[in-house]
Amino acid sequence: MSKKEEYILELENITKIFPGVKALDDVSFKIKKGEVHALVGENGAGKSTLINIISGVFGPTQGSIKVDGKEEKITNPSKAFELGIGVVHQERNLIDTFDIAENICFMDISTGKNKMKDKKAMNQKAERAMERVGLDLKPWQGIEELTSGKKQMLEIARAMCMDSKVLLLDEPTASISLTEADMLLKTVKQLKEEGVSIIYISHKLEEIFEIADSITVIRDGKNIGETLSASSLNKDKLIELMVGRKFVTETYNNRDLSKEPVILEAKDISSKKNPIPKSFQLKKGEILGWYGLVGAGRTEYAREIIGIDPITNGSLLIKGSEVSIKSYEEAFQRYKLCYISENRKEEGLFLQHNITDNVGIIALDQICTKGGFISYRKQNEITESYKESLSIKAKDIFVETASLSGGNQQKICIAKGLCVNPEIMIIDEPTVGIDVNTKGEIHKLIYELSVQGISVIVISSDMGELVGIADRIIVFRDNEIKGELENSKDYESMSTKVMGSILL
Ligand SMILES: Nc1ncnc2c1ncn2[C@@H]1O[C@H](COP(=O)(O)OP(=O)(O)OP(=O)(O)O)[C@@H](O)[C@H]1O
């Protein structure tokens, strides 16, 4: 077989320099037809930059790309589409004013193949695409009301129906349910059988070992060694290659919190949106895990507690006194209760603003002078101190937050939460899309906050995460609390108990 036939995509000596940052430094790898090739590396290693270069979002500073043996200049996304390169980026790329079929057939519309004239054909194409990924929606439905998991699956369906020769998937399972993820992995395997080549990025290493044939490790923008066959590696070895040293998972021992006072208590609270009553207690300095699959109703419950969705029945007590929180502003200003959203890009940060402005907006009461002026000196001092204490990796505090890695963005969200001197923190999916090393750092941070006396609720779909750090775990399913478990810190026995509660 000639080289032209063997490799569908070849990246040669790709370098990308952003102002002040060398995101990629001489990266090369090749991918064969019908191969699943994983790209792994820590947050900020340069994986998404590579995906953006292959899909024509921006060009490389140096280096070349060959598609099917021929050198190509992929100067824009339409060119990538023409070459048979489909992509699902980390950020959602759907148009709210388009219905499902129009979103799925977007490239047909924008390249003039179907100028929305043949709606029936579009609907049929959308139905076939959705069936392929197990989405049971109508093609004429709007997309605004869809959950982020469904939107993600829609983008995957769209990329899959483009008849791509190469499909780029950048963290496709970060915000979808386990069932959806299973379906996605099955579809990836099926596409591979059909001869499609797939570049797959994920921080979930189990997935990598389940589907990848070959793996390229990127560290600080550089290739680490040659492309490796997945079967020659194990998880520990892969982590070592990613982080550049032996990696040891920190363990947090069980604590006796029986004498600590209850800080937050919900007694049978429910709302219009979520009428099933639920109760729990949170002690001072406790880490309480809320486990459940995506869609189990945990975020909705948190929204009731922080005053976004009004509680219609039951009572909420803070330090023993019944409270009625009317807004999130009241939650954090008056009750020192802060919430860190799972959706850091859309709800957690002003992405086009720098780090110090993101922190300053929350710390206004600390940085405003008596005359109402902002003290930028004070604002920068506060931001610098969080940059230091949370080990936020950025050139300086004036860097645009959009350009930072997911892990560093998450730390800025935590810094913003800390600005209100919280007594209670609810952190929703703290490590989605975060690499194994930074995940460890964030767990340590949460543990340290709890040792300082802050009570933390961690909402997570990652059982390993909760078994690692939580003192107790509450299990959610279908908007109900199905169980409450002391954490033995033994993963096997906790999984059995959690699954037992879910199935009850
Ligand atoms: N538009 C940009 N302007 C400036 N710097 C950027 C830009 N995009 C990315 N970077 C920087 O390039 C480097 C690589 O980022 P990239 O997003 O490619 O990493 P990643 O491996 O995909 O990380 P993650 O796993 O968090 O998605 C980082 O230092 C990032 O801050």
Explain this structure to me?
This protein is of the alpha/beta class and 504 residues long. The chain folds into 3 domains: 3-243, P-loop containing nucleotide triphosphate hydrolases (Rossmann fold); 262-336 and 420-503, Rossmann fold (3-Layer(aba) Sandwich), CATH 3.40.50; 350-412, no CATH class. It has 20 helices and 21 strands. The strands form 4 sheets. Strands 3, 6, 7, 8, 9, 10 and 11 form a 7-stranded mixed β-sheet that branches. A hairpin with a 2-residue loop joins strand 9 and strand 10. Helix 14 (355-362) packs parallel to helix 17 (406-418). The model has no long low-confidence stretch (mean pLDDT 88). Bound molecules: adenosine-5'-triphosphate. The site of adenosine-5'-triphosphate has 15 residues, from strand 2 and helix 2. One of its GO terms (cellular component) is plasma membrane.
Average residue-wise pLDDT? 88
Query: Could you say what the CATH architecture of the largest domain is?
Result: 3-Layer(aba) Sandwich
Distance between the termini: 56 Å
Beta content? 15-25%
Number of domains: 3
Can you identify the CATH superfamily of the largest domain? P-loop containing nucleotide triphosphate hydrolases
Annotated CATH topology of the largest domain: Rossmann fold
Helix content: 25-40%
Could you give the count of β-strands?
Answer: 21
**What small-molecule ligands were found?**
adenosine-5'-triphosphate
CATH class of the largest domain: Alpha Beta
Please work out how many helical segments DSSP would assign: 20
Class from helix and strand fractions? alpha/beta
Radius of gyration: 24 Å
Characterize the overall form: globular
Domain ABC transporter: 9-245, 252-503
GO molecular function: ATP binding; ATP hydrolysis activity
Subcellular location: Cell membrane
Pfam families: ABC_tran
